[in-house]
Design a protein that fits this description.
Layout (H helix, E strand, L loop, with lengths): L1 H11 L7 H11 L5 E3 H18 L13 H12 L7 H7 L3 H8 L3 H12 L15 E3 L3 E4 L4 E4 L1 H9 L1 H17 L7 H5 L10 H11 L13 E5 L3 H4 L7 E5 H5 L8 E2 L1 H17 L1 H9 L4 H13 L4 E2 L7
Parallel strand pairs: 7-8
Antiparallel strand pairs: 1-4, 2-3, 3-4, 5-6
The structure holds zinc ion.
Length: about 325
């Protein structure tokens, strides 16, 4: 166990230009039940993992401003050319079932070449065995790899230890990944974004009811009246990862997730003024809302700053196609 931790940490602490090594470590944890992992499986894992980071969260994951990592570039390209910007992986995949294959096809020299670097570099920081950093075959403390067979094969001893300690190793890895990302991004809740998104997207009933009652059936964005609605996160949930009352509005489903819908985009700036106004009315009309705003010390300044941070993080802006005249 001690040796496992020492080696794992050594790999985490190496010099990194991007976050591929962390993604590879998470892939290893994910598939550590098997004796071998194919490069295809790892490539699929990368495509899925990085889609949310790149498209839904707009995370920057490289020390090099001029060139994004290959997986990121491929994902940008697919998101843009198929109009999937702002969507989570599972939403995008519903619209485009072959999403993963399309991403992998966009990698300049194929996924085998894209993965060769992180796979061959992963174990080179450990004080162990023969590695072949950059080479197509090699062997480290945890696995040996062969690019021609596109296969990673585990050392049986460590494979079992990894399974026993996978929860701890995952948290360690996500923590180091988050540290890397925090250096280059102004984003809240980085760790929550990297660990599996099992946390609930459910909004408390009391809060929900406040928003519904206040809206009186009118969509915040297009101002049409409708009984069929969503409670929308004005500043995308993908950015703030929380459900504060000040950020929730009543939205028709066309605006929220219709053909030209908002999804995880940011409403244009004139809607920000409307949001602040809407919040003021909410506070004036409801003692419960007033108490909430006072207790949480919500100031317009804070909301404006969060809005600006979201723009700085690269979130796309949006406005509804139809607006009631
Ligand atoms: Zn609407």
């Amino acid at each position: 166990m001690q040796e496992l931790l020492k080696n794992w940490l050594a790999d985490l602490n190496g010099k990194n230009q991007n976050t591929y090594k962390f993604a590879l470590q998470l892939a290893i944890l994910e598939f550590s039940r098997d004796q071998h992992i194919t490069y295809t499986k790892i490539a699929h894992f990368f495509a899925h993992k990085y889609w949310d980071n790149v498209v839904a969260y707009n995370l920057r994951e490289t020390t090099n401003i001029d060139q994004a990592p290959y997986f990121h570039t491929a994902i940008y390209h697919v998101a843009k050319s198929h109009k999937l910007e702002g969507l989570y992986f599972h939403q995008a995949k519903r619209k485009l079932p072959h999403l993963t294959e399309l991403i992998l096809k966009q990698l300049p020299n194929g996924y085998n070449r894209a993965l060769q670097n992180p796979i061959s570099r992963l174990q080179s920081n450990s004080t162990s065995v023969k590695t072949g950093s950059g080479s197509s075959t090699g062997e480290g403390w945890l696995f040996h790899w062969d690019s021609s067979k596109e296969l990673i094969t585990f050392n049986a001893h460590f494979k079992n230890l990894i399974q026993e300690n996978s929860v701890l190793l995952k948290k360690l890895t996500v923590f180091h990944w988050a540290l890397f990302i925090e250096r280059y991004n102004q984003l809240p809740s980085v760790t929550s974004k990297l660990i599996d998104k099992n946390e609930s997207r459910t909004i408390k009933k009391k809060i929900r009811d406040l928003v519904i009652e206040h809206a009186q059936g009118q969509c915040f964005y297009c101002e049409e009246f409708t009984e069929v609605f969503d409670i929308d996160h004005f500043i995308p949930f993908a950015f703030i990862f929380d459900h504060p009352l000040w950020n929730l509005v009543y939205s028709c489903q066309e605006c929220n997730r219709g053909k030209e819908g908002k999804f995880e985009k940011l409403p244009r700036r004139h809607f920000l003024n409307k949001l602040l106004l809407n919040n003021r009315e909410l506070v004036n009309n409801s003692a419960l809302a007033k108490e909430y705003f006072q207790k949480n010390n919500i100031l317009n300044e804070h909301i404006q700053k969060t809005y600006q941070n979201c723009i700085n993080a690269g979130f796309k802006t949006w406005e509804p196609k139809r607006v009631k005249k």
